[in-house]
């Protein structure tokens, strides 16, 4: 049996947990980070096992993500812009592939005008939402009591316009069907990015990448902690009380500490036994949080052939299994890489297929966007985080209907010596690495305050 004593134990070696650990260590607090996986990074994973460097998890940096940009600069990492020269492709309900430039998908003049009107209305409403406290909006209960689909149906009678606007937060970001979460949850997603227009603008939200992969952020943060990061150590039990915590993990490891930070997705909280049990409200709240489902598809070609055809690589369709795709070619690599996404019920349908049938369906979508050459990649790879043991979904947790207004204010509230932090709980940067970093800083400061001696 291995027994450790620390001031703070952090569960999860993703960006949030590692940022918190470094901040605490710099303040003179002893820490240890326990990670269930055999690697650090959490939902960041840069993998080269296929023969090409592929970003299996998070990868992009947008201009509003200042916490991530600062961290990347501090760690000495280089960034490069996503390729976006040329025309984008949209496949509408008629199945025809149409080229376009700008943010609005090419449809009839009436539908394009309706999309622009809806975005303007949503921008106005989003501006009223505090991403750190959306439940405080005067209409919070009303907005959390209607589904995103129902809200858009009230907003417009144009079915194609609704399908495209729904894509930006439902399929693309929350990775759930638009009838399964509220309008308030969707507006939080937009508010966390600065505006609804920012979600619409792929050149904004998917702006830059890190040379060599975004997982270098947690890798370098872990290097600074050295032996205070312990891998292959799933936490099984937390015994807690006024005097602190005893954390038990696989490998016959026990850590006694004054505080513990759970820096993992909320859907994993209940895989730990708590002694005594957590308060009833906390247990009920966890039952109303869940992750969505998405398959991230990587197709590597000998060259980025779509560029010679005048295409940027950016493609969208609410009507195909792969609802969006981008040029994801690596810095300094002459090969072309396309990355595509299939989420919510699209992912359900694809995962019900055998692997070869699924691959054919995915490549059919890519061929619809880019032409027949897209059917024959040199490397084909799928990332399915729903099947990953220590994630079980993507990209982040969201509430079911009514849950955000009902429970949101308690999401980050400590239970005795137990603190909660992850990108899932962020306001600005919600469900992004930027939010993970912000939450890591935030929870470290709260822990430091809790550890500070009480003035006489």
TrEMBL record:
<dbReference type="InterPro" id="IPR036188">
    <property type="entry name" value="FAD/NAD-bd_sf"/>
</dbReference>
<dbReference type="InterPro" id="IPR050703">
    <property type="entry name" value="Flavin_MAO"/>
</dbReference>
<feature type="domain" description="Amine oxidase">
    <location>
        <begin position="16"/>
        <end position="448"/>
    </location>
</feature>
<protein>
    <submittedName>
        <fullName>NAD(P)/FAD-dependent oxidoreductase</fullName>
    </submittedName>
</protein>
<dbReference type="Pfam" id="PF01593">
    <property type="entry name" value="Amino_oxidase"/>
</dbReference>
<dbReference type="InterPro" id="IPR002937">
    <property type="entry name" value="Amino_oxidase"/>
</dbReference>
<keyword id="KW-0560">Oxidoreductase</keyword>
<dbReference type="InterPro" id="IPR001613">
    <property type="entry name" value="Flavin_amine_oxidase"/>
</dbReference>
<comment type="similarity">
    <text>Belongs to the flavin monoamine oxidase family.</text>
</comment>
